[in-house]
């Protein structure tokens, strides 16, 4: 698994959602839940990520599931859990 997690197609779909999660936690802790007319740059970046994340996870699955199924399933699970973190914050607070 160590060799597979070093591949960019494995760790990028894990790191990006964790960055968004940290951004959301920091933003909410500093400014609170603020409703604005314009969504802002953060919301637009989140929407772009939300469209690209399934493509990144799908690419990893197509490329690595046939080659190393046990390692790939574990990393896919990590990618999915990492993606659900910021999504759950957005849905919980209805941002």
From TrEMBL:
The chain crosses the membrane at residues 12-34, 46-65, 72-93. Keywords: Membrane, Transmembrane, Transmembrane helix. The keyword Transmembrane applies. This is Uncharacterized protein.
């Amino acid at each position: 698994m160590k060799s597979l997690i070093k591949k960019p197609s494995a760790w990028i779909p894990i790191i990006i959602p964790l960055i968004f999660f940290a951004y959301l936690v920091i933003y909410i802790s500093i400014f609170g839940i603020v409703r604005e007319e314009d969504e802002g740059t953060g919301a637009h970046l989140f929407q772009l990520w939300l469209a690209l994340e399934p493509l990144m996870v799908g690419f990893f699955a197509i490329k690595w599931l046939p080659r190393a199924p046990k390692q790939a399933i574990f990393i896919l699970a990590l990618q999915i859990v990492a993606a659900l973190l910021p999504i759950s914050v957005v849905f919980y607070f209805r941002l």
